[in-house]
Design goal:
Low-confidence stretches: 11-18
Strand content: 15-25%
Mean pLDDT: 91
CATH architecture of the largest domain: 3-Layer(aba) Sandwich
Distance between the termini: 10 Å
Structural class: alpha/beta
CATH class of the largest domain: Alpha Beta
Radius of gyration: 19 Å
């Protein structure tokens, strides 16, 4: 996490003061595309809309289920949002401009249940623990949120008791599996759980045990609008971005 925070400090230090001015309404209108996987898409989508309204430049926020394949195929784009490990790999293989990979948000975890099902109490650590023990089945993904959910449950000392009733999804929002009745309680990022038809978002995990998933943004080397791409990243880590991310059930990075 320290390395991740250092990257953000570095970006904020080197970000040119004139970038946002160059990208503002006084400059000729441009257009950029921002690629994102499921984990950070809600934040990218809402930041893109706000940046476009603020500057007059068009921002296409694109949700990609096969992000690596798109990047390997050099699909036209300017910015990518990904987890920090994936971003490090993209820098190493020459897809992302070194020094532009910037932490911008973290995604807290929560739970969802099927529409009409009783909503368990998860307001405290003890209540969450009891809910996990009494649940008939628990499901989470194979990505960051699933890894973190397993770590949280193990740290609470109930890993062995819940192992037999825990299922991993094959991809897509966990809440979709909850809606189909594949398992009783689904754990994933709040921003991914909210608004899935057939399921109900119960709430966030207690902050004291939560382990949010981090995400970064970076400028793609194939970008044809690198100044505008950098301006978008500057906006994504600005003070103005905080309320926008929170509306998306995400949190801005705190140093």
């Amino acid at each position: 996490m320290l390395i991740w925070e250092d990257k953000m400090r570095t970006w904020l230090t080197i970000a040119a003061a004139g970038i946002l001015a160059v990208a503002s309404a006084g400059a000729q209108a441009g257009e950029i595309t921002v690629l994102s996987g499921m984990g950070s898409y809600s934040g990218i989508r809402d930041l893109a809309a706000s940046f476009q309204k603020l500057t007059g430049h068009k921002v296409n926020a694109v949700f990609e289920t096969q992000l690596n394949q798109k990047l390997n195929a050099n699909a036209p784009a300017d910015v990518v949002a990904a987890g920090p490990d994936q971003m490090d790999d993209l820098v190493k293989i020459g897809k992302v401009v070194p020094g532009t990979d910037t932490p911008f948000t973290v995604a807290p975890l929560g739970i969802a249940v099927k529409v009409g099902a009783p909503k368990p109490d998860i307001s405290t650590v003890d209540a969450f623990k009891a809910a996990m023990l009494s649940a008939k089945s628990i499901g989470y993904s194979r990505g960051c949120s699933g890894t973190h959910a397993a770590e949280i449950i193990a740290k609470l000392g109930i890993g062995d008791q819940t192992k037999a009733k825990t299922k991993l999804t094959g991809g897509g929002p966990v809440a979709e599996y909850v809606a189909k009745g594949d398992f009783e309680i689904g754990i994933q990022q709040n921003n991914v759980l909210v608004g899935v038809p057939g399921s109900e978002f119960v709430g966030a995990l207690p902050a004291s045990i939560d382990k949010p998933c981090p995400f970064s943004v970076g400028v793609l080397k194939i970008s044809t609008q690198p100044i505008l791409a950098r301006a978008f990243i500057t906006f994504a880590v600005s003070r103005e971005a905080g309320p926008i991310l929170r509306q998306s059930h995400l949190e801005p990075v705190k140093l």
